[in-house]
Amino acid sequence: MAVGAGVPARSWAQSEITNTATITGTIQTERGGALTGVSITALHLPTGIRRVATTDTRGVFTISTLLTGGPYALQISQPGFRAQVINNVFLKADAPASFALVLAPDVVAVGTRRLDRTALESVAPVDVIDMRELALAAPRVDNTQLLNYAVPSFNSVRETSADGADHVDAATLRGLGSDQVLVLVNGKRRHTSALINLLGSRPYGSATTDLNTISSNALDRVEILRDGAAAQYGSDAIAGVINLNLKSDNHGGSVMVNNGIHQSGLGYNTTLSLNKGLKLGSKGFLNVTGEVDYRGYTTSPDYARDLNSWPVYSSIRAREDSFLLANKKTAKDYRQRNGDAIMTNYRAVYNAGVELSEKARFYSFGTYNYRRGQAVAPWVLPSANPADLGTQPGFSLGYQPNINTRIQDGAAVVGLDLKLGRWDLDLSQSIGTNRMRYDLDNTLNPSLGAKSPTSFEAGGLQFTQAVTNATASRLFDNVLAGTNVAFGTEFRNDYFEIVAGDENSWKDYQAGQPGASGGSQGFIGFDPTSAIAGSRQNVAGFLDVEADVLKNWTVGAAARYERYSDFGSALIYKATTRVQATKWLALRAAYNTGFRAPSQHQQLYRQLTLLPTASGTTYSGIYNNQSDIAQVAGISKLTAEKSRNASLGLVLTPTKDLVFTADAYQIDIDDRISLTNEFGAGISPQLDDALDKAETTSVQFFANALNTRTRGLDLVASYNRTLGRGTLHVTAAANFNETTLRSLNVPTLFRGIQTDEIAGNNFIGQRQLSLITTGSPKSKLLASVGYESVKWGVTARYTRFGQVSSYDFNFDGLEEGSYYLVFSAKSVTDLILTYKPVKGLTLAAGAQNLFNVRPDNLLQAAKNGHAPDGFASAADYQAYYLKTYGTPSTTPYDHDILPHHMVQMGANGAFFYLKATYAFGQ
């Protein structure tokens, strides 16, 4: 055992101390083993004097000749274990303070099935985010925003004017799709949202797992595995795995209040969250969290209506001004809301575990989220179709429809951990469901004329997933230097449903108002022909072996076989190795094959849009691959995406305070699923006949169309050191990635349009393809510097979001295609201040995006990029357009009413907040 002084500025001579005190104690592992070499620091807060000790071979430590009184802060740290801080320690001369401490290992649960691997020992890169600290002080409370500013390979933005995507924030990893990352909660598969992202949003054509259904105050930490892991966990884990670990405290709790608002005065956020730990029996726990969260709407300050794009009444200025004057209106009265949707969340989380005996443990956890959201659609204006304005009061001069959602998300898991000799057996059953319903108000079904209601039930979506899992594992400590073997089986059932809306929300009553549009404006309800329900099952078996061949050399191998009821089977594998070359250098590498099963959403989704014509109603929309029209088009049924992932990395720990990791990766994905372009008449006589029979003018399908390659590099560095009366924290991290198209899989019928050199006429549209290849930041850099003492702390964070680019929408199906939009890199600075005035109370205040940085608007992005393919400049394109179509081009689309695409960090600007957390019963 070693004892030493740590503050050179002041000496602490034995002769100067008349009344001294002592701190003693023992430190053990959770299994009761003594911990040697643990560092214990006693910091006397009034003077800043520090005394340090380390535990001996029995886990015992003593710090003597301490000043009486206090308060002291006791800091306990050991590499591989989670640090502890004990505050408000007061000492007496005649009564030594004694502590019996248990350190929990800082192990990870993803990427390995061993129970003793830390993040630095892992054979694959794992980010570990302490949510207790992050949620306590950071500006936001929703998980996507918290992680977006903490992990460089993680990206999430809020959409605007994208229907359902306004209400569910998608998340991506390493620049891949939102459905190519697997989400776990306490190590168990999490269900996805019922929503499938359409309207050209970034996760186009995919379903995402909604991370914001779980309260951040209920989380202990988040582990993000940045490596393919489908062989270990099954479908979706191509880019990696996100594991949300719930709090398991059996005592104490916290109350958190958060308030914030944007510099514009809009987007007021407020949250009230309560967490409480309870004992269940002598060794069990129940941890519960309840939360209410409200977020107000935002809108962009860049609003300047362009009469060539969205006139209220006429593109001729004199007529426009005359109309506004006659009706006592101004252009500001027709301002388009174009930011965050209004959102209210009610969240509840529980996590429980009970020791039934020495060989059996029961566990259960669950979540529930009710969300009420309100987004808006573009205005319905006199300039578009006067017949759509109706005759109801308040609508005849135009209206902005509200697209509202009611989302209910619930999940529960029950399980048993059993000891069978030296084997551990984990049996679990989970079920999760997400139900999304649309309702609209402040809108009309114009074809009903004066009889039209102003609110509608438009139907919706539901996805349910049930998983039965059995996993057996054992550590053979005498085989090589330790070999862990795990195997098991899993059965999963997926169910997806589309529910039709009320008839008024989708039907075209042409006789009621000739020339008027049918269905609720802003969002047409799901019609009965779109309503569908289906389920599928799959069964899997897996084997996972991880061996320490030598004390400093680990190898791993995993294999998995899955059989799906709807498309076939997959056999995949993974191989890993890690070498501790020196005390301060480790090398790691991995190669794996993987797959992502087509989601039930992609298999079954069908949505038709009604188009009134002189001869009757026709349809335009998405047809699933089981439809007759898909068979005529030669669109095959969907099969799994297949991946190959290779990575190579290193871990540097030159000192105990400094850690640096670097990991390079290449991910090849074959048969990647995408929505096709829209196809109308003229491709083939057979397809023309099928379109006529279906009374459909244009169709889209999901197809295994793309073969892509993603290459990237992750860099992470952290430095933590005791300095003065506190701790200095410095972190720097970066992700660089690039996705390229290797080849396209084009059905025979469409090969002609793929090679006809007409930019907007391809099998996969320009925008769809660009969202996959360049729609995520090419780079993302994070840096933070923070200093934390017992009472106060300050942190400055810097985030640089790299360039994002994509083709604009092509709503009119122009053969020349659309503008290529380039959104330049932007940097955001955050400031976080914390203060702890009394025991248990933490106050936080600060700013996110302190300097009010916003992404490029559409007009600037068009200047950064280029005009549609084949035109030397925007001026050339404008001249061509005017000559060809007889009117000025209005592209980029909606550049006046929707000036920002939500591409990197959102367009809301600076956000200021106050947060207070009171921890009780600690």
Automatic annotation (TrEMBL):
Signal peptide: none
Entry similarity comment: Belongs to the TonB-dependent receptor family.
Keyword Transferase annotated: no
UniProt entry keywords in alphabetical sequence: Cell outer membrane, Membrane, Receptor, TonB box, Transmembrane, Transmembrane beta strand, Transport
Subcellular location field: Cell outer membrane
Mode of membrane association: Multi-pass membrane protein
The name this protein goes by in its record: TonB-dependent receptor
Highest taxon above the source species: Bacteria
UniProt-listed InterPro entries: Beta-barrel_TonB (IPR000531), Beta-barrel_TonB_sf (IPR036942), CarboxyPept-like_regulatory (IPR008969), Plug_dom (IPR012910), Plug_dom_sf (IPR037066), TonB-dep_rcpt-like (IPR039426)
TonB-dependent receptor-like beta-barrel domain sequence ranges: 366-850
TonB-dependent receptor plug domain ranges (all copies): 121-241
